[in-house]
Amino acid sequence: MWEYTDKVQEHFMNPRNVGDVEKADGIGEVGSLACGDALKLSLKVENNVITDARFKTFGCASAIASSSALTEMVKGMTVDEAEKITNEDIADYLGGLPKEKMHCSVMGREALEAAIANYRGVILPMAEGEIVCECFGVTDLEIIRAIRESELRSVEEITNFTKAGGGCGKCEDRLRDILQQTVAGLTVEPKVVKKEKRMTTLQKIKKIEEVLEREIKPTLKKDGGDIELVDVDGDFVTVSLRGACSGCQSSQTTLKVYVEKKLREFVSDSLIVEEGR
Amino acid sequence: MECGSDNVIYMDNNATTRVAPEVVDAMMPFLTDCYGNPSSMHTFGGQVGRAVDEARESIAALIGAEPDEIVFTSCGTESDSTAILSGLQTFPEKRHVVTTRVEHPAVKNLCENLDNLTGHKHRTTRLHVESDGTLDLDEYRESLTEDTAIVSVMWANNETGVIFPVEKMAAMAKEQGLLFHTDAVQAVGKIPINLKESDIDFLSISGHKLHAPKGIGVLYVRKGTPFIPFLHGGHQEHGRRGGTENVASIVGLGRACKLAAETMAEENSMVRYLRDKLEAGLLERTPRSMLNGHKTQRLPNTANISFEFVEGEAILLHMNRFNICASSGSACTSGSLEPSHVLRAMGVPFTAAHGSIRFSLSIYNTEEEVNFVLDKMPSIIANLRAMSPFWNEKEH
Predict the structure, then answer these.
(1) Which of residues 28-57 of A touch B (CB under 8 A)?
(2) What is the per-residue pLDDT for B396?
(3) Among residues B34, B111, B257, B332, which one is catalytic?
(4) What is the ipTM of this complex?
(5) What number is the average pLDDT over the span B69-80?
(6) With a CB-CB cutoff of 8 Å, which residues 288-317 of chain B face chain A?
(7) pLDDT confidence tier of residue A196, bands split at 50, 70 and 90
(8) Spatial separation of the C-alpha atoms in residues B68 and B237, rounded to whole Å
């Protein structure tokens, strides 16, 4: 059981400003169902002052309380003032959050930034970085910013604040590198050679499906066979051979020599194809 | 510190159970006057040894085993580790383990760390489950190889209550000369088990899942099955597990097993009736809700229900306000950032996995409590959905 402050509990049980602002001047949407929390913040702005703020949140108690607190904080502020709100401010307003839940306050700040950018008609730079955590789609720029702003000193803290590393954990070494370089004040070296961009798991699944449809299925169908994507777990792609392919003597060869080769060519050269059922 | 169970509606019995009052009574003498060491030569210790033997008999009787096939451990996790590592040491040249994708962390995390623990490279087959949480025996048959040392498959899943055909699976393993372990902590006491009629080599029990205290477990080791201890030390448990016996808890577990034998029929009629009523009522009263797990091939006390577009921790905290205790497979409640591995293995969509709630009942629940929960849940879900950016009343 989490130790929530009275203020967190109070904002969770009686959240303020739930809903959508009508004819909003700025809308910020962050998170997703897959990630386990999401926040939609809408703002009404008159003469550069935020006159109304409303939210809709999918998530745990601290996500709902952070959203509620955020709307209370920004109402009456000028856009320039609101822009300066940090995730620490949101957490402080609530009397603190459990350290594992700090990412909820980060989500609040991100939604606010997105809503302000939307109001101003500009695009946020954060999404431009290189994706480090594929499970939660967190970029290096977001991680570096969190390290600097919240003075993070361990990989665990990075996970608590940004979720990065909280899924499969494969990016831990990379997080440690980024942490060391950021703390040492070095600029994290940009990749010189533009390597193939790292994908989130969702992006990977989509791309694999595309290649299966476009490149692989037509060929298999000529021989009366078919293939279906079952699961993608990191680099492991599980597929199921159907029709004439199932039980075919040469199906293993088809998988390794043909399907895996195609997927490596078009999606990522580290993929390993396995047969499920 | 203050702690009480007044007014609590406890529907989290797969997490832990109330220690039965009869069990507490049976234990008390061994926490007070009868403090002798069962290994001692004097009568004062010897009488304690007899109490341990009696408990061993009651436990054996519940699962159709012989008393000397019962080895006391500290918990279910120790039993699981002992069995699997013993199996691997029995066949040091074999490097393959078969298990499932939905095991409890006690088995799952052990199997993921075998290379580090043994210093050898191992291959682990993690059997898939269907969308209703059941296994495919053809896949299982094909997974067994000459290199396989041991199979470990839970008897019933803790999150969904789905029951696996472990007796049949043990027989298939036996045909090929393989060892078979089952983590039965959720099954023992809830469904009839007769090990005499089976080919199961190892079976794990955890006391606190069947109204005995926490900190006591059992590993059943079939007579004739090769066994290598996990904890070396004194000659306790005939050298199969070192360490002075947790006498009071052992006596408590013995009493709990007797009690379970007496209430098994009630578990499968009254508890099942309450569970079915709760489940049907929730599914009927809440739109976009669904049952996770096979409808019938399931423990009588467990219902795992997903409420789409809302998050589990938020649901639990609202339930908590009414003193209703349950669990969730959501990411936030697990302390990790990803939802339950069991629901993901079943292919439950993220929209539903984050909003899953597990209700697990016991003989101490009443129909009044079920009615109360049925009364409160729909509005808890509706209020949270009204706040969810993914919920659109008109569309759903």
Answers:
(1) 29, 33-34, 36-40, 56-57
(2) 63
(3) B332
(4) 0.86
(5) 98
(6) 309-314, 317
(7) very low
(8) 9
CB proximity B336 to A under 8 Å: yes
> Tokens at residue A234, please?
């990191």
- The parent domain of residue B300 ranges over 263-387
In a domain, B303, yes or no: yes
Find where tokens 């002992």 sit.
B82
Mark whether B301 and B227 lie in a shared domain: no
Listed residues B223, B244, B259: the one ending a domain:
B259
Helix (H, G, I), strand (E, B) or coil at B156: strand
pLDDT in the model for residue A190: 47
> pTM for this structure?
0.82
For B184-226, the pLDDT digits (tens) are 999 999 999 999 999 999 999 999 999 999 999 999 999 999 9
**CATH value of A126-183 in 1.10.10.1100, 3.40.50.720, 3.30.420.40, 3.20.20.450:** 1.10.10.1100
What does the DSSP assignment read for A187-255?
Answer: PPPPPSS-PPPP--HHHHHHHHHHHIIIIIHHHHHHTTEEEEEEEEETTEEEEEEEETTTT-TTHHHII
Quick: pLDDT tens for A86-131.
999 999 999 999 988 888 899 999 999 999 999 998 877 666 788 8
Distance from CA of A129 to the nearest CA of B (A): 22
Q: Does the active-site annotation cover A104? A: yes
Q: Which tokens in the block code for residue A98?
A: 């459990």
Tokens in use for B106? 């006690």
Segment A47-68, tens digit of pLDDT: 999 999 999 999 999 999 999 9
A245 given a catalytic annotation: no
